[in-house]
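Here is one such protein, fold included:

. . .
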Amino acid sequence: MEETVKEAVNCKNCNKPLKPHWEFCPYCKQPVHVKPKKCKKCGEELEEGMLICPVCGKAATSSSARKPAAKKKPIAYNAPLEYKTAVSHKASAEHKTPAVYKEKPFKPVTDKVNISDVSYRNLFDAYTHGKLPFSNGYIVSSFFSDTSYYGIYEIVSYAGVKEIFMTTTGLQFITGGKKLYVLVEPDSYQIKYQEPVSRAEGEKIPKRFNELEIITAKNQTKIMIAKEPNESYGSFTILKPTGINFAVVFYNRPDMYSALAEFFTETLNRQRRVPEHDAKLAAQVITNILKRHMGFEGEYK
């Protein structure tokens, strides 16, 4: 009689080889056989890393309740240029995400409109529903690679907007702004030695290594955060996101910086596969730089 041989599998989370009868990965503690996640509203099957349903726009929330994060001592800004960590944690629960953008007539923001009932919204959805603040705010956009976990985040702070209007490529703001770049470089990237400013289109940012705070994660992914923002004058444009990319606006609320830190922890961990401990470290460094160089005090008031 022929003996049936089960085909070997790799962990879908860390890609380590597993024995056929294993139910859990001993390397990352994740279950081996995971049922496909489906949208609770329309039943569409969701791919790993999706934050919203591509069909109906419903947030792809986790079924498990979020545990409150333990309070930790803030990380000092004057940390060394190169960080290395060796702590791993379970991936955090999924967070609430903004609704998908739908074309509707623009309604200007008025004082009577309550735009601060949430910490952030989808930028283009906020624009069409008249909930885009003219006074000030932060806009976070992503530019992810289709073939790897390489990615770029752009964080723009703005204030005193004179006008906002739609163009063929995105939203144009008639005001000045400051932009902070964050680059995520996976260990598989082939030209690590090349300065970020000299890399190919779609992979470069206007910064050199000595202008970046660099965090090396446990899985050797590098998170490169600009030490200072670039400044634009007169106007700037936020491009329409494509694929799994996003553009969200954060409102100037008391919980704004904690919401930004939580948001970056989630997206770095779930969408760019940065270990949770390292994602939290990077998120804290990002918010420290935003407070120091891109806050709404001083020149914005």
